[in-house]
Specification:
The protein is of the alpha/beta class and about 375 residues long. The chain folds into two domains: about 1-120 and about 305-355, Rossmann fold (3-Layer(aba) Sandwich); about 130-300, Rossmann fold, CATH 3.40.50. The chain is built from 13 helices and 15 strands. It has helices spanning about 20-30, 45-50, 60-65, 100-110, 130-145, 175-190, 200-210, 220-230, 250-255, 305-325, 330-335, 335-340, 350-355; strands at about 1-5, 30-35, 55-60, 70, 90, 110-115, 170-175, 190-195, 215-220, 235, 260-265, 285-290, 290-295, 340-345, 345-350. The protein has an eight-stranded mixed beta sheet, with helices on both faces. Helix 5 (about 130-145) packs parallel to helix 6.
């Protein structure tokens, strides 16, 4: 099969859909991989690296997009909509519940779209979301610590504190992969950490990991209000697979936070759970509203592309190989991969997205 790997066009998105080592595996299995020139440079991979792995370098984005199977990292942007076409198989992160425009364009184009975030194992784990969730969770605290610095508009709080001075307070909404990894870093820095979640079993599991180093609370309006007001760093880590994240923090609650506090929502590409937070970019990552610093970069792992590309490829390659070897028949051979099918034959085919957009074809 001919596989196209375009260069990512999202602001400062330096990850790439396939690493040279993945290209080598696909090439050894008889497939031809067309990589847009410079696609991997931001992640530390040169055109020569791809050529030595059996890839073919193409100079124009159109030459990569013209292939029957496209492997990307992030969703196509408006400038790439013209590249979408009938008979094309697209495998990437899509997060369509928060992007009606792209959903409509994929339907109109007749593209078969498989979303990384919807691939689901029998135990309900999301294997292609986990590696980026780990990275994003760890980066959230790293970024939060930076923007708490006075020069960045923050309160001037050191999360770990010093002897005689209280440490900073970190509140994490959601105890899944993102929340757990954020807590690991925050605890390691010496911060005072709160995690809120609606799953009591998950809270019990987190207790076995963190013990008394983290305060674990059942997530409800009362508990959220009690801890958010005093948070130095608030991290939204709420994921509802296939749907927009629910709003847990209202504008009025944000207005009650201390000036210079920092908000970060890792699920902003799914709408986010904080009312005042909107998507930003790596070029302009923050804005201040109600005196609080807001950080809403939707592609946080793009800041560490060397690590993130390899971590992502370790998870995606087995599925990419199945799709390359068997085409759409791979969706029946692998039920987990089949659950990632989102758009096909000009229709929405994913059940959750059908509920989100009940008026679109297929719903």
């Amino acid at each position: 099969m001919e596989i196209g790997v375009p260069k990512e066009t999202k602001d400062q998105e330096f990850r790439v859909g396939l690493s040279p080592s993945s290209v080598r595996v696909l090439h050894e299995n008889g497939h031809t991989i067309f990589v847009e020139t410079g696609a991997g440079v931001g992640a530390g991979f040169t055109d020569q690296d791809y050529q030595q792995s059996g890839g073919t370098i193409v100079k124009q984005a159109a030459d990569a997009w013209s292939r029957e199977f496209i492997v990307k990292v992030k969703e196509p942007l408006v400038t790439e909509y013209e590249r979408l076409r009938k008979g094309q198989l697209l495998f990437t992160y899509l997060h369509l519940a928060a992007d009606r425009q792209l959903t409509e364009r994929l339907i109109e184009a007749g593209t078969t779209a498989i979303a990384y975030e919807n691939v689901e194992l029998g135990d309900r784990r999301l294997p292609l979301l986990i590696p980026m969730s780990i990275i994003a969770g760890r980066l959230a605290v790293q970024a939060g610590a930076r923007y708490l610095e006075r020069q960045q508009g923050g309160r001037g709080v050191l999360l770990g504190g010093v002897p005689g001075v209280s440490p900073g307070r970190v509140v994490i909404l959601g105890g899944g992969i993102v929340g757990t990894e954020a807590a690991r870093i925050a605890v390691g820095m010496g911060a005072r950490v709160h995690i809120l979640d609606v799953n009591v079993d998950r809270l019990s599991y987190l207790e076995t990991i963190f013990g008394s180093r983290v305060e674990l609370l059942y997530s409800n309006s009362s508990h959220i209000e009690s801890v958010v007001q005093d948070a130095d760093l608030l991290i939204g880590a709420v994921l509802v697979p296939g749907r927009r994240a629910p709003i847990l923090v209202s504008r009025s609650l944000v207005e009650q936070m201390r000036p210079g506090s920092v908000l970060i929502d890792v699920a902003i590409d799914q709408g986010g759970c904080i009312a005042t937070l909107r998507p930003t970019s790596h070029s302009s990552p923050t804005y201040t509203e109600a005196g609080v610093v807001h950080y809403g970069v939707p592609n946080m792992p793009g800041a560490v592309p060397w690590t993130a590309t390899q971590a992502l490829n370790h998870s995606t390659l087995p599925y990419v190989l199945k799709l390359a070897n068997y085409g759409l028949a791979a969706l029946k051979k692998d039920a987990s991969l089949g659950k990632g099918l989102t758009i096909q034959n000009h229709q929405v085919v994913h059940s959750v997205l059908q509920e989100v957009f009940p008026d679109l074809p297929g719903s």
